[in-house]
Each structure stands twice: as structure tokens, then as C-alpha cells.
Design a protein that fits this description.
Layout (H helix, E strand, L loop, with lengths): L1 H9 L2 E5 L5 H6 L4 E4 L7 H10 L3 E5 L10 H11 L3 E4 L2 H9 L3 E7 L3 H14 L3 E5 L4 H11 L3 E4 L5 H9 L4 E4 L8
Length: 187
């Protein structure tokens, strides 16, 4: 985990790549970590290889990966064949099994009210992901409360529009900010 966290701390802006066409921009940018929010059974292996060749961390959001089931066999395949630095998922069962397979895990949570906040804390304590991502990022007060409560590195993403949003989230205690806006990948 240290190597992964070190790279994020080196550059806390994380490229959230939603379209394969944007991968080249992420590879050419200053980011050290890429979240692949797209891909399929035919291209994900070569995508991961390209990112690793560029010496960047790569995390596959397995909930968005096409052509591969959403079960333990899919996670086995990802861990043994594709070999990303880790996975992202909203599903606790994916996080638990991926950890058992030795993958670094980032569990994504959507915070919309106090109930979802409480559920996030309970889930983190039960599943023990390596890191969490909370969305939307543009809630510094809530991000700060999450960071103080979970005792894990926190990434925030979603609705990040400008450099000030990134600064606000980092000042709230997050270790990184994921954004799908290529113009923010090199600030």
C-alpha cells in the first residue's frame, strides 16, 4: 500500500478516464494514478499494460468493465491475468473478495445524506478496504468528517470543476482527488 499511497501523495490529482479516447491525455499528463472507468474484455489488458509502462498506478473500476462478469471469477481473472494495481467498486462483496486475492481495493461511496454517511462508516469498518473514494467531492465539510472518522486514506471525486475544488478537497484531508476533466490532470 505504501507505494500506491506514495504515488498519490506525489500528485494527488487522479485521472478518472471515462472514455478510452482520453487515455492518451492521461498518459501524457502529470498524474501518477489513473482510474479506468471504462474498458472491456478485449481492451483492458492492453490498457493496463500501457498505463504500467508509463509508470503510473492503474485501478480498474470493475463495476464498469464490459464483457466480464461481476462475480468472483471475474476478480480472479483481473488479479491473475490483467494485474492492475488494484480495483475500485461500490460492492462490498467485490472489495472483500479482491482483498482476499491480494488486490489493493478502493471502495466507492456516494454520500447524499446522514444515513449514507452512517452506512459508509459501518461498511468501511466491516469490509476494511485499503482506501475509499467518496462522492461528490465538492463537500469539504463532509470530506473532513469522513477523513477524521474512517482512519483510512480518502480520495474524493465527482463534480470537481476547477483547481479550487481540488485545493478545498485536499485541505479537508483527502489524500487525492479523482476527476474526469483532462484539463485538470496537469495542474
Amino acid at each position: 500500500m505504501e507505494h500506491i499511497l506514495d504515488k498519490i501523495l506525489q500528485n494527488p490529482v487522479i485521472a478518472a478516464v471515462r472514455r478510452v479516447e482520453d487515455l492518451e491525455k492521461a498518459l501524457e499528463s502529470q498524474v501518477t494514478t489513473i482510474f479506468m472507468l471504462t474498458g472491456d474484455i478485449f481492451n483492458i489488458n492492453s490498457i493496463v499494460e500501457r498505463i504500467k509502462t508509463a509508470r503510473k498506478n492503474v485501478f480498474i473500476h470493475i463495476d464498469f468493465l464490459d464483457g466480464i462478469g461481476k462475480d468472483h471469477t471475474a476478480i480472479d481473472y483481473i488479479a491473475r491475468v490483467i494485474k492492475p494495481n488494484g480495483i475500485i467498486s461500490t460492492r462490498s462483496s467485490h472489495i472483500k473478495y479482491a482483498r482476499e486475492m491480494g488486490l489493493f481495493t478502493i471502495q466507492r461511496f456516494f454520500l447524499i445524506d446522514s444515513l449514507s454517511f452512517d452506512t459508509t462508516i459501518r461498511t468501511v469498518n466491516a469490509e476494511q478496504p485499503d482506501m475509499i473514494e467518496v462522492m461528490p467531492a465538492v463537500m469539504p465539510k463532509v470530506i473532513k468528517k469522513v477523513c477524521q472518522t474512517v482512519g483510512l486514506p480518502v480520495i474524493a471525486g465527482g463534480l470537481v470543476d476547477n483547481k479550487q475544488d481540488i485545493i478545498d478537497v485536499l485541505n479537508a484531508g483527502a489524500v487525492g482527488v479523482s476527476t474526469g476533466k483532462p484539463e485538470l490532470w496537469s495542474i
